[in-house]
Amino acid sequence: MSGVKTQGTQLYMHDRQNGEIVEVGCIDSLDGISSPRDQIETTCLANQDREYEAGLRTPGAATFTINTDLQDESHIAVYDHYDRGDKTDFFVGWSDGTEAPSLESDSASVTLPETRSWIRFEAYISEYPFTFNQNDVVQSSVSAQISGRINAIPKTADTDSGSGSTSGS
Question: What superkingdom heads the lineage (predicted)?
Fold first, then answer.
């Protein structure tokens, strides 16, 4: 396999306040899902070159661009999270599958289908700007500050019958 195409990628948000999974509509780019490691210097004075150990990860800010539509309920849900400043779980569904995440009956746990690869992270919306350019549609380059670990979850099943669960804490 030469790689996974970006066409078919979907972004979902766990809207805990309303007890639902929201697919963020009309994203046209998604970038910055990273958590680079800090470095801990361990160089002794006698050394001629610096030495380092891996330190803690420092989560970055994921950015996704949308063609903003205030009639799109998902765009309003993302804006509401920005307004409140609360953290929530985000799920990036890769194009190697089509099944959406689902909520367990407690509305706190999310099941991610095994028929698709996923990236899961917790974040708060740190910026939701509106851009008005001439001869264009209104766009927003939304920033989500990641908090904690980023989970890369590979596809493990070839049919839509499997499922995997992750806790929404």
Answer: Bacteria
Select from 112, 92, 118 the least CA-distant residue to 168.
112
| 96-99-100-102 Cα dihedral, nearest 10 degrees | -130
* CATH-assigned architecture of domain 10-91+116-142+152-167: Irregular (4.10)
How many helical (H) and strand (E) elements, i.e. helices and strands, does the chain have?
A: 1, 12
Instruction: State residue 57 phi and psi, 5-degree precision.
Output: -85, 145
pTM value is 0.87
What are the pLDDT digits (tens) for 45-95?
Answer: 999 999 999 999 999 999 999 999 999 999 999 999 999 999 999 999 999
Residue 45 sits at φ, ψ, to 5 deg, of -60, -30
Write out the two tokens for 63: 């950015």
Any idea where the domains of the chain sit in the sequence? 10-91+116-142+152-167
Over 59-103, what HEC string results?
CCEEEEEEECCCCCHHHHHHHHHHHHCCCEEEEEECCCCCCCCEE
The CB density around residue 77, as the number of other CB atoms within 10 Å, is 20
Q: What is the bridge-based pairing of β-strands 10-15 and 37-41?
A: unpaired
Sign of the CA dihedral 50, 148, 101, 12?
Answer: negative
